[in-house]
Write a structure and sequence with these properties.
This protein is mainly alpha-helical and 164 residues long. 72% of the residues lie in helices and 6% in strands. It is built from seven helices and two strands; from the N terminus they run H-H-H-H-E-H-H-H-E.
């Protein structure tokens, strides 16, 4: 199975993130119209409200896509599939471990910034470190696994080409 390049992984991550943000904005607007109590929370604790909605949308987005294709929509468009080291579809537990680790790594710097906006540059440095370490891990590891792939015993590969 062919290793997925870092540029493809970053591209699919960025495009999926844009979709998640758009869905989150729509969800926030719908919830604000539906419930006055949520509207009050929105104005009192905007970042916490946004973060909870965004995290919920991201988890639902990835779980739904995993159930359908074993990949996110953008990964599916790039013909990627998530498999275990034995080449099979990961179990729900393996997928959940992978998603939890990824969500933790992506959201901790965001939480740090929301908690104390003076940590903006530190949170940015963490993201830069994640990018550099991630690119090295993908380049060096034979399957291109990152931390969440190593912990869940899974990785992305290209779908086998269909014979005509």
């Amino acid at each position: 199975m062919q290793k997925v390049e870092f540029s493809v992984r970053i591209l699919t991550f960025v495009l999926d993130s844009i979709i998640i943000v758009a869905l989150s904005i729509m969800g926030i607007n719908i919830l604000a119209d539906v419930s006055p109590l949520l509207s009050q929370l929105y104005f009192q604790d905007y970042w916490l409200y946004w973060w909870i909605i965004q995290l919920g949308v991201a988890l639902a987005y990835h779980y739904t896509a995993f159930s359908l294709w074993s990949a996110s929509p953008m990964q599916h468009l790039k013909n990627l599939i998530l498999v275990t080291t034995k080449g099979k579809k990961p179990s729900f537990i393996q997928f959940s471990i992978r998603l939890f680790i990824k969500a933790t790594v992506v959201n901790i710097p965001i939480y740090m910034y929301v908690y104390d906006q003076d940590l903006f540059f530190f949170a940015g440095a963490i993201y830069l470190g994640i990018l550099l370490i991630g690119s090295k891990m993908i380049y060096k590891h034979p399957r291109g696994q990152l931390l969440h792939g190593l912990m869940s015993n899974s990785y992305f590969t290209y779908l086998p080409e269909e014979e005509s």
